Amino acid sequence: MTESPESRAMALRLAALSHPARIEILKRLSASACCSCREVVDHLDLAQSTVSQHLKVLVDAGLVRFEADRQRSRYAVDHSALAGVSASLTDLVNSCCPSFSPKRQD
Question: What does residue 63 show for φ and ψ, rounded to 5 degrees?
Fold first, then answer.
């Protein structure tokens, strides 16, 4: 079986979303323009090292942007990448299960 680059990218992003802590981290990051790891830790009941590992997974999947700063690194949701996951998943459902697809209203 040959996998397309699009399928690999989608699988990577869906895998990154497959952990409840990473979903909570995305919610926290979405609440402001950007956050430091410490700010995320302050809102979640997780160790700093755990949050750092989860942030790395999200960054590697392209769902979160990372900006290095001398004092504190900053993280922000990549809204276009997250919207792309939604669109790809909708396309997949529409192609695999057309009878279950919601009707689009244009």
Answer: -90, -20
Whole-model pTM: value is 0.84
Q: Distances in Å between the alpha carbon of 45 and those of 38, 51, 54?
A: 12, 10, 13
Residue with tokens 């949050």: 51
Question: Is residue 2 included in any domain, yes or no?
Answer: no
Contacting residues for 17 by C-beta, under 8 A, at least 6 apart = 23, 26, 63, 85
Please check whether residue 48 lies inside any domain of the structure: yes
pLDDT in tens, 27-68: 999 998 889 999 999 999 899 999 999 999 999 999 999 998
Q: What is the domain-level CATH number for residue 83? A: 1.10.10.10
* E strand map for the chain: 64-67, 74-77
Cβ–Cβ under 8 Å, residues 44 and 28? yes
